[in-house]
Amino acid sequence: MLIQATLTAFGLISSTLGSQHQPRRRYAYGDECWPDTETWNSFNATIGGRLIRSVPSAAVCHAERYDSDKCATAKDSWLDSFWRTNQTGAYAATLWEMGETGKCFIDTSIDAPCDQGIVPHYSVRAQSIADIQASVRFASEKDLYLVTKNTGHDHLGRSSGKGAFSIWTHNLKGIEWHDSFIPMGAPEDANGVPAVTLQAGEQWFDVYRAAAKQNALVVGGSARTVGAAGGYLLGGGHSPFAHDYGLAVDNLLEMSIVSADGKYHVINQHSDPGYFWAVRGGGGSAWGESIKLFPNVTDAGYTGYGDLSQGFQAIFLKPNSSVKSFNQTFAGFFNLTQIPGVHGAVGAYPSTWNGYLDKFLRDPNIGTNIQDTSRLLTTDVINQKSEDLAEFLVRNGGGGFNFIGKVNNDERDNTAVNGIWKQSHALMSISIDWADNATELEKHEKRLHAVQISKGFTEIVGQQGGTYINEANP
């Protein structure tokens, strides 16, 4: 079964944005050419008053923005991913609010410093395609530094920017199912497939629940509040079901975008195959302000997630499997737990996908300063470099794994995703974090350490190795 979704991801794709050899200056708040208040007020009137003065998530607890009720809510909800995605200036990782030098913390006094950090200065709470078009055109006319934010989960910080103008797509909601969808411009004899349209602000938690009511399975991620039709999908989108049904982007049928000149386009393999190829895995935020996409939803071996921070722990799952199959597959793990000195447990948990969502779907690392570095592990690397990997993990405090299994390589439309996905069994990542009150030097040293880890990964997997663009080291 197929799913049609919607997303927003701004990109410089139009010649109206300047010559390739003479890039135009993009203006941010504080620059002399930043529009004056009257200009902003006039623009705001054209979009129904949906222009927002964006501030960091802790700003309501400080100085002139102090609000006792909102501050209490912010403190109670600081690690709540649902609350964070509902705030214009909040991000899953507070690193992308403050950067290395900003200061605005939730646990300091009212009169403690609270600056803007790298949270955009203004945001448009988009509620229609027209809002996005108007915002893109305004940014183009005024040469503004423009970013797009959906839920704020971007590990690379592409949805924030110091002094930027932002389009916030989180409030574009809507799920519509289709019995027989045919992409625009398809041959007359093309067969329709079941599909669903997702607006840009839809999140996996709600999409999975809607899919369960349709007895359908969406090839999506494992975090509840990540946008289903955002950068996750256009960056490739690894999934517990990639082994059976490919990456999320492999299941994309069609998308609608607003390009950098403010024009609305519907693209697919028939209407614009080159452009469609590029947005599927080319890092969506580099290609357009996307409004509608269509990933595959299938009717529903083992894939999952684990880490080595406290020994080894993981959750594996497989559609349409059985306890007998699990016991046979994981017999080696059962045997390991019988070795003297080894403490562990291995067990099967029969469940529906919806049952799994209720018990295990979470949003890790919310409200923290965290930066990832990661690499895909191919068959050759796992077979030939396992000892090197183990030593590397011990030296660097353990790591996390996404056990993607080999991505299903059935014949399908070509995408811009690197072919190494189909050779890889797992995505291994190591995260670097620091406290809010870390000094600038400490933060800088932590980020340099992440670079050194990336180099260490490269020494093991080789120059031909790859990673998941959405969880790479920025």
Write out key terms for the chains shown.
FAD-bd_PCMH_sub2, four-stranded mixed β-sheet, disordered N terminus, 15 helices, five-stranded antiparallel β-sheet, FAD-bd_PCMH-like_sf, 474 residues, oxidoreductase, alpha+beta
What does this structure look like?
It is a single chain. The chain has about 475 residues and is of the alpha+beta class. The chain contains 15 helices and 16 strands. The chain has helices at about 35-45, 70-75, 80-85, 95-100, 130-140, 205-215, 230-235, 240-245, 275-280, 325-330, 330-335, 355-360, 380-385, 385-395, 440-460, and strands spanning about 50-55, 120-125, 145-150, 165-170, 175-180, 195-200, 215-220, 255-260, 265-270, 290, 295-300, 305, 315, 370-380, 400-405, 425-435. It has a five-stranded antiparallel beta sheet with strand order 13-12-15-16-14. It starts with about 35 loop residues before the first helix and ends in a 13-residue tail after the last helix.
